[in-house]
Amino acid sequence: MAGRKFSIETRDLTRVFRVKRREARGQTREVVIAGDPASASAQPLLWAARSGYRPRQVLLLKSAETAAALGQLAPYTAPLPIEEHQAVAYVCANGACELPTSDPGELTTRLDQ
To answer: What are the chain's domains?
Structure first.
């Protein structure tokens, strides 16, 4: 193996270190998709939330059918509104949620931070 070089880009290392640091702290995040999970607006958000390696992430679906049960399981989701015509995603940590987004690219950016 002499003479072989291993190369990795700095941005890749930065992301790995951020993920490992979060894992070490045990910090979890919840992604709440509010709206009909079968709708065309929810599908890209679900895909964005499920993509990538995020071992300390929990995905919660809040719809008209699940709102009451989810409110008991995760009380911080109770005040999050369900939009009728547009699904939105909330990124939450420690019982507090960021402002919602309906943009899958923005959701991915938030989750990769």
So the answer is: 28-111 (3.40.30.10)
Q: How many CB atoms lie within 10 A of CB 16?
A: 12
Per-residue pLDDT of the chain (113 residues; tens, 9 = 90+): 455 544 444 455 455 555 555 555 667 899 999 999 999 999 999 999 999 889 889 999 999 999 999 999 999 999 999 987 899 999 999 889 999 999 999 999 999 98
pTM higher than the cut 0.85: no
Residue whose tokens read 């995020």: 54
Decide if 111 contacts 57 (C-beta within 8 A): yes
Cβ-Cβ contacts under 8 Å for 33 (sequence gap 6 or more): 42, 45, 46, 49, 59, 60, 61, 62, 87, 88, 89
